[in-house]
Amino acid sequence: MSHLSITTAAAEQIRRVLDERGHGLGLRVTVKPSGCSGYSYVLDFADEAANDDVAFEEHGVRVYVAPEALEMLDGSEVDYVSEGLNRYFRFRNPNVKDECGCGESFSV
């Protein structure tokens, strides 16, 4: 069975953005071929659940993962971090074998 965890900081940010939008079920995560290392994460907000989405719930929020991304994201942690002026979702993914220097893409 696949697992994806959501930190408290990520849950708070997901909840904050959904409240600002006024609608939505949670965060949707997929991966796409891209970048210099092979794949990149694609984040969007889920306004409805697709039939084949896998939902993970923690701290009162949901993250929906497309089935084609499930194997690559299994065991990952979704976090929300602040580094200087930058704030973003960060994935701690145990399946990643290599990342590009800019952190935009990864390979498994």
From TrEMBL:
Residues 3-104 form the Core domain. GO terms for molecular function: 2 iron, 2 sulfur cluster binding. It holds the Pfam family Fe-S_biosyn. InterPro entries: ATAP, ATAP_core_dom, Fe-S_cluster_asmbl/transfer, FeS_cluster_insertion_CS, HesB-like_dom_sf. Belongs to the HesB/IscA family. This is Iron-sulfur cluster assembly accessory protein. GO terms for biological process: iron-sulfur cluster assembly. GO terms for cellular component: cytosol.
